[in-house]
């Protein structure tokens, strides 16, 4: 079975500061990895995903994430955040060929960007 | 515009009163799924459908039903809602599960009193 742990439930940060949102996963098989963002009163939208290949993945809105197989981590980073990045961020995994096609989500991290 | 729509967006109901939350996608996706989101738990899958007339249980199916009579629609049915089904519900669709992005609807906030 797979599980996802997001190490911080809330991350407050000032505008233009860098930010890292941490995600660790547990799985006995290789998985696909995703970061989704949920803006207030909206559904989730994909920020980026890792399927294979280069371990540094670039996504939308200036976000990037690095896959570390030895540490089973997939941390999300942005070098300079904006007020508009305030949202909840979810890390998720999906095992290849998994029955049900479900995404297994972490608990979410609330990013709060202050002026 | 490619999208997943859900209705209603907000619903307050009483215990035991049957309700249906509709979900529709216009992307011709084979795969559709329902999740519920609860604080501190992230999203958990309720039911999924690989294609028309093919549905199966996810991790938390108790108290829910679904149907997939048409490719674009995947309604979620609560036959006898209870307060522990108070939650935020999301419908999602995808061409095929696994490596593909899932597209989420805007969510339905359900309160059962």
Q: Report the span from N to C terminus of chain A.
A: 41 Å
Mean pLDDT of chain A: 92
| Beta-strand proportion of chain B | over 45%
Shape of chain B: globular
Give a description of the structure.
The complex is a heterodimer of chains A (115) and B (113). Chain A is mostly beta strands. Helix content of chain A is 0%, strand content 52%. Chain A has strands spanning 3-6, 10-14, 19-21, 23-26, 32-38, 44-50, 56-58, 64-68, 73-78, 87-94, 104-105, 109-114. In chain A, the strands form three sheets. In chain A, strands 2, 5, 6, 10, 11 and 12 form a six-stranded mixed sheet that branches. The model of chain A has no long low-confidence stretch (mean pLDDT 92). By secondary structure, chain B is mostly beta strands. Chain B has strands at 4-7, 10-13, 19-25, 31-38, 42-51, 54-57, 65-66, 76-78, 87-94, 103-104, 108-112. In chain B, strands 2, 4, 5, 6, 9, 10 and 11 form a seven-stranded mixed sheet that branches. In chain B, strand 9 (87-94) and strand 10 (103-104) form a beta hairpin. Chain B is globular. The N and C termini of chain B lie far apart (36 Å). In chain B, 38% of the residues are buried. The chains are: A mainly beta (115), B mainly beta (113). Chain A binds chain B through residues 4, 9, 32, 34, 36, 41-46, 49, 51, 90, 94-98, 100-103, 105-108, and chain B through 4, 31, 33, 40-45, 48, 50, 56, 58-59, 90, 92, 94, 96-99, 101-102, 104-107.
List keywords for this structure.
heterodimer; A: 115 residues; mainly beta; six-stranded mixed beta sheet; four-stranded antiparallel beta sheet; globular; B: 113 residues; seven-stranded mixed beta sheet; 11 strands
